[in-house]
């Protein structure tokens, strides 16, 4: 009775949520999706009814990852608070019918609107923009069938006042660019395929009626990202032709991200020469062919640069220090640097150097000292081998960058130099060639806690120390320098992978365990770690990194067997916040035990499994989908037959599509010849963020778009 009386007294003395101040309640409510606030929460009591309509909560409405929103909810939301909305983000709402866009016309005061990934026709766009006279920022897709001649004079008047435009092109077109005469920021994403669905080759020439010239005189930021394909290159040249005639005086960010070979032409050379004479840049990214072998960087002028990307360039460390950092110039303004695939960037010269040679630590030290405020750094896709000099290891130098939030490194860069030289690589399938007592060969049990793991590997390793010094790191990528995904874009699946770097052979469970020191880690990518024996470090990460939202694992340990399956299942039981999971591993068995463990991830929304010769159990997949109610994307590219894959895909869609409007399911044989045709129908949001493997650290400038 005494215990009961004490509990009742505590309850009576407890603080009621409604007794908090309005400021605290508004802060709490800011974490609730706007649709829930307006359509549900505000109906609970009078106080919340008032607070939920506060301008701080209705000024900006984000629907881009509200996978439960449907047409009716959007209609009701716009009807209730449409006039209060100044910024509306519906990016990636691919599941909403095009008629949903009609309700945006109620938002008369809109200043920023993002409709990337939404189905919008020319006529609907014209009707909507005609009513949005205050619009200054717009993001749209330009799909086949888009006709700029259908835009009304009122629509063009609105576009003439737009200063920020993000345009994703799926067909050769200028889109609405010629109508935007006041552009200051232009972001272009070229996603045009070289062939139509019928197999016909497409041309990069613009359609009839697309001869209007873009207006770039006020342009401050130009960004273009190209998907693979020659048509994308042809179309972007047409956009650049106007820039080459007259370079905007206020241009301070010029960025072109192009995979593969994108040759420089006379027009682009004139553009770069004009930029070198007339502008001072704060952000720069160019195709590798435009930088390699040229003295361009020596002539370009920089003001207070915040972003550089020299991805896949043959730029040497000597040139990097002399021409970009000006021999150690103070670059405290630089917050993001992408040197992915820049194999000689930490060497004094590249003429007689092999890619596997040791780095020059003095170059990295100059970089760290000059760019001490770096928040995003990408050094992946290269062999950055440290020498045995004490205190000059890459990890030791990087530990000085205390502001880092995201980091991408090659696997071979994190191993201790002495260990990689003195100790031969550990191969789990190697049988001792000795006489005498027989030795039992198997997979050793893994330690269940961090203390046991620490005893197994001394904590004095340079990588362990690096992880301990970067306490606030949110994104980490450790990727093998020779790793390539089994599912590249616009090409058949790769059947054979290159062997890992020799220096990477000793990287395994202990290094993975070191990552568990990153308490605030939100995104983790591990690819081609050859010495994973049990995956014990994954359990440590699951226990310690409670903020982990995105996990991508690829080709860990032996290729013939998934040696870390038991540890992975134990890890998943602790990942309550995990939203995105991508697994790429040959012979992966997606069976009942795996999906039972995955069901503990109650926040999981997207799952992608890529496995050559992998198998799955259809009943287990269906049970998983039924228990994890938040899952809206299920992509599996395995070794099963086409019939098994199609039947499972149809069953999932038939069972769950009605209650999950955003559900996107693709289950298909990895090595099937029609894989590329299936991939082209995947929504760009999923394809770009999870399905296709790539390094995402410093991929583009921070806060490029909202």
From TrEMBL:
InterPro entries: F-box-like_dom_sf, F-box_dom, FBXL18_F-box, FBXL18_LRR, LRR_dom_sf. CDD domains: F-box_FBXL18. It holds the Pfam family LRR_FBXL18. GO terms for cellular component: SCF ubiquitin ligase complex. Residues 14-61 form the F-box domain. GO terms for biological process: SCF-dependent proteasomal ubiquitin-dependent protein catabolic process. This is FXL18 protein. It comes from Toxostoma redivivum (California thrasher). The gene is Fbxl18.
């Amino acid at each position: 009775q005494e215990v009961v009386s004490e509990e009742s007294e505590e309850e009576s003395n407890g603080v009621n949520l409604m007794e908090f101040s309005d400021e605290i309640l508004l802060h709490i409510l800011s974490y609730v999706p706007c649709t829930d606030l307006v359509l549900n929460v505000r109906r609970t009591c009078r106080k919340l009814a008032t607070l939920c309509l506060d301008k701080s909560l209705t000024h900006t409405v984000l629907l881009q990852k509200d996978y439960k929103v449907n047409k009716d909810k959007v209609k009701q939301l716009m009807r209730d608070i449409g006039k209060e909305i100044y910024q509306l983000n519906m990016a990636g709402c691919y599941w909403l019918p095009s008629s949903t866009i009609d309700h945006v016309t109620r938002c008369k005061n809109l200043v920023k609107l993002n409709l990337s990934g939404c189905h919008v026709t020319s006529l609907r766009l014209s009707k909507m923009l005609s009513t949005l006279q205050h619009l200054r920022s717009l993001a749209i897709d330009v799909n086949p069938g888009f006709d700029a001649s259908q835009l009304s004079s009122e629509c063009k008047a609105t576009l003439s006042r737009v200063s920020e435009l993000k345009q994703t092109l799926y067909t050769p077109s200028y889109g609405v660019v010629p109508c935007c005469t006041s552009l200051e920021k232009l972001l272009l994403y070229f996603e045009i395929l070289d062939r139509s669905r019928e197999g016909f080759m497409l041309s990069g020439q613009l359609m009839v009626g697309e001869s209007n010239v873009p207006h770039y005189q006020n342009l401050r930021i130009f960004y273009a990202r190209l998907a693979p394909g020659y048509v994308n290159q042809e179309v972007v040249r047409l956009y650049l032709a106007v820039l080459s005639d007259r370079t905007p005086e206020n241009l301070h960010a010029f960025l072109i991200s192009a995979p593969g070979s994108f040759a420089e032409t006379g027009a682009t050379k004139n553009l770069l020469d004009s930029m070198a004479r007339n502008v001072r840049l704060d952000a720069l990214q160019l195709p590798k062919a435009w930088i390699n072998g040229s003295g361009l960087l020596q002539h370009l002028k920089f003001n207070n640069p915040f972003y550089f990307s020299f991805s896949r360039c043959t730029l040497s460390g000597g040139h990097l220090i002399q021409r970009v950092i000006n021999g150690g110039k103070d670059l405290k303004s630089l917050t993001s640097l992408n040197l992915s695939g820049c194999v000689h960037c930490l060497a004094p010269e590249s003429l007689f150097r092999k890619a596997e040679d040791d780095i020059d630590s003095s170059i990295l030290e100059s970089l760290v000292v000059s760019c001490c405020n770096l928040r995003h750094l990408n050094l992946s896709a290269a062999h950055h081998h440290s020498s045995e000099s004490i205190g000059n290891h890459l990890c030791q130098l990087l530990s000085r960058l205390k502001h880092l939030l995201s980091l991408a490194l090659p696997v071979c860069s994190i191993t201790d130099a002495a260990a990689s030289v003195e100790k031969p690589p550990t191969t789990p399938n190697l049988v001792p060639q000795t006489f005498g007592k027989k030795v039992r060969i198997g997979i050793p049990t893994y330690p269940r806690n961090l203390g046991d793991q620490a005893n197994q590997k001394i904590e004095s390793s340079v990588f362990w120390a690096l992880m301990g010094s970067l306490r606030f790191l949110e994104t980490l990528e450790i990727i093998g320098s020779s790793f390539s995904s089994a599912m590249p874009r616009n090409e058949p699946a790769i059947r054979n992978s290159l062997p890992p770097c020799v220096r990477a052979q000793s990287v395994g469970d202990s290094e993975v365990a070191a990552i568990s020191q990153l308490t605030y880690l939100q995104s983790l990518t591990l690819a081609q770690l050859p010495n994973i024996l049990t995956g014990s470090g994954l359990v440590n990460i699951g226990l310690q990194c409670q903020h982990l939202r995105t996990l991508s694992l690829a080709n860990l340990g032996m290729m013939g067997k998934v040696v870390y399956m038991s540890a992975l299942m134990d890890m998943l039981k602790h990942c309550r916040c995990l939203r995105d999971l991508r697994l790429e591993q040959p012979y992966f068995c997606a069976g009942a035990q795996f999906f039972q463990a995955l069901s503990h991830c109650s926040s999981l929304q997207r799952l992608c499994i890529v496995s050559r010769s992998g198998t799955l159990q259809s009943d287990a997949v269906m049970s998983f989908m039924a228990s994890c109610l938040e899952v809206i994307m299920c992509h599996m590219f395995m070794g099963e037959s086409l019939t098994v894959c199609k039947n499972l895909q149809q069953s999932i869609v038939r069972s769950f599509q009605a209650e999950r409007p955003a559900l996107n399911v693709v289950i298909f044989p990895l090595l099937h010849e029609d894989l590329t045709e299936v991939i082209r129908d995947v929504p760009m949001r999923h394809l770009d963020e999870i399905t296709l493997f790539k390094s995402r650290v410093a991929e583009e400038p921070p806060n490029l778009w909202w």
